Amino acid sequence: MNKHSMIFLGLDTHKEFHEVAYCEERRGAVPVHYGRIPSSKASLKKLRRQFEPSTRVPH
Known about the structure:
The chain is α+β, with helices and mostly antiparallel strands. The chain is built from one helix and three strands, in the order E-E-E-H. A three-stranded antiparallel sheet has the order 1-2-3, with helices on one face. The mean pLDDT is 86.
């Protein structure tokens, strides 16, 4: 993945949690289920940091 690539995030939101998936912007990319995170502002901020270009290595 290069420095200027794009990732699409999908959130299935619920009151208590969010299911997260992502997909890279390239032909033939397969969506990846990232997991479940708590439904809180802090969890969303942490998720955003994990996908920033300088730290983009999802589990």
